[in-house]
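Section: Multi-chain targets

For targets with more than one molecule, the full set of components is provided together so that the structure can be written out for the assembly as a whole rather than chain by chain. Components appear in the order listed by the source. The example entry contains two components.
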Amino acid sequence: MNGARPHPLLPDDPRLKWALCCVAAVALIVLPFAVDALLGRAWVRIIDVALLFVMLGLGLNIVVGYAGLLDLGYIAFFAVGAYCYALLASPQFGLHWSFLAVLPLAAFVAAVFGVLIGAPTLRLRGDYLAIVTLGFGEIVRIFLNNLNRPVNITNGPQGITLIDPLAAGGVALNQTHTFAGITVAPVHGYYFVFLACAAFSIFISLRLENSRIGRAWIAIREDELAAAAMGINTRNIKLLAFAMGATFGGVAGGLFASFQGFISPESFTLLDSIMVLCMVVLGGMGNVGGVVLGAVLLTALPEALRYAAPLQKNWLGEVYVDPSDLRMLLFGLALVLMMLFRPAGLWPSTMRRRELAGGGNTHAG
Amino acid sequence: MDIFLQQLVNGLVLGSIYALVALGYTMVYGILGLINFAHGDICMIGALTALTVAQTLAAMGLPLPLVLLLSVLAAVLVCIALGVSIERVAYRPLRHAPRLAPLITAIGVSILLQYSAALIWGKQYFSMPELVKPSEIALAGVHLTDLQVFIFILACTVMAGLLWFIRSSRMGRAMRATEQNPEVAGLMGVDVNRVIAFTFLLGSAIGAVAGVMVVLYYGIGHYFMGFMLGLKAFTAAVLGGIGNVAGAMLGGLLLGVIESLAAGYIGDLTGGVLGSNYRDIFAFLVLILVLVFRPSGIMGQHTGDRA
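Its structure, encoded as tokens over all components, is:
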């Protein structure tokens, strides 16, 4: 856990490190324009969504990866953030607040929800938490679906439309702008906003991991009893993990609402929670790089699976498996296989790998 | 008062189904300390299997009792095979892994079952063939159908049988011993792996029967029906004291009654603001309240580690 340990991927020479970072930065700036030119605008949009999922994955990683608390209703915080933004910046109530006010509020409200759902369950064993969060995710969805009468708040299953785009200083991101001869379409503009937010999330996650709080989370994950004996207030620290994870989800939700311009309860089902969980588990619980990898892979995979339908038609004469069902089947299979054969994920954190490979000392039962 | 009695009866019938599903959760939890997320979906597979078999046999013109019996039998067999092989392939290798691992596996299995069902049966709602035409029985101002009576009696018979089995049979004793301490039970000559496999077998078989009851009761089946059923049954198991077989039965009946009464009265109590479309919320409210105030449930003992 000391800072001097050489990073497995970065070279030791500081000048080389700088050069590498510069190349990566330039590549990330050019990426949307290159993808736009080569693959079409739809793929830039997919990259935008992938960045949102990076944020969601990192948020869930705090809860599941660092603190070891299985949250199966994580998408509810995403929903809370999205509806916060949608209600305060759309014609629904005639409010058009600036995102500078709404996004922090969305983060705060999501964090409050995180504490509310965590408080009754966190002094209990972890598996109860899984079920309660599962139920909580459903409750939020049921409310969003039904809160259109007697007072119309969420507009029910129809969802909220015409949500304001991100805008500051007269520049709205839903229009195409031209800066110094470069055409910046909405998807490009959002790309840079999301990239900045994702980078900030990565930065926070990395800093948290090695902080006093982060080490407390990991201690609780490894052995709660021992952590408590070392003077960690386990309940408060766990609540903090919950609130912190929810904050990430809330911000991502607000960004999602402004990006889509339309949200409905449909976007916040259990399957979406499972998908974010898959990203964290597949990539590597507790490892920031792994989670980013998982989020990008699993956002791109369904798009690639779209080609499965015409393939089936060509080979078998008929479309037997709907691509979205195929995706869920693969997710389920991936969860089972990962736990059996590579429990630490594709890109495991060093500590987690040791823990999950060692087995023995954390006995279940 | 009539409404009260009516909802009470409806709740008891519904609750007896919840109780049967809850048994599967509570037995596995008692022995392995694992929430078997896939259990609700096993019930779903049982239900859909029974529907298919019933449709085929009814089309062949077999008599009703035979159709019912054969479809229940088919459902039970399919679920037993499924439950035991899931335990063998997915859970057994992870028995000594950290707690998060089997839990995530269980979720994976649950999704796998759901979407395999979507693949096999499609995503539309299936209706039960018009086999059973429930006839009404009026009793002290309460409207009952013979189907409801049948479901309730069958559920109670299964529960009584299970209680007797666990109390009196050799395997039941082995199950209780394993629940208390797997290592010592193993030293005493109990084949722990066999006992655990048998627990899954028993839970899956009972779950299959419960699944068939659900399609009989509501008349329809769907690939996603196991999710809500499982969630409510788990709530019932926690309410009764998870790990406690008698508690699961009590919790199931209680949850059914609470849900029916709440759904029946919520409109009146809130002046029509909240309708019965909030029905599914009560189970979660019950779950959260139990976890806050009495995490060991009604009949559970206070064991710090378990809770």
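Residues 14-354 of chain A form a domain with the ABC transporter involved in vitamin B12 uptake, BtuC fold (CATH 1.10.3470).
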